[in-house]
Amino acid sequence: MYTKFAQDVLAMQFKDVSLLITAFTHRSYVNEHKKTVSEHNERLEFLGDAVLELVVTEYLYSNYEQQQEGILTNWRSALVRTESISAAAQKCGFEPLLRLSRGEKRGTDRARAQILANSFEAVIGAIYLDQGYEAAKKFISKTILITLNDILSQGTWVDPKSQLQEVVQSREGFTPVYKVMVEEGPDHDKTFTVGAYVDGKLIGQGKGPSKQAGQQQAAEEALRAYL
Question: Which residue among 50, 89, 106, 207 has its CA within the 20 to 30 Å range from the CA of 127?
Answer without folding.
Answer: 106
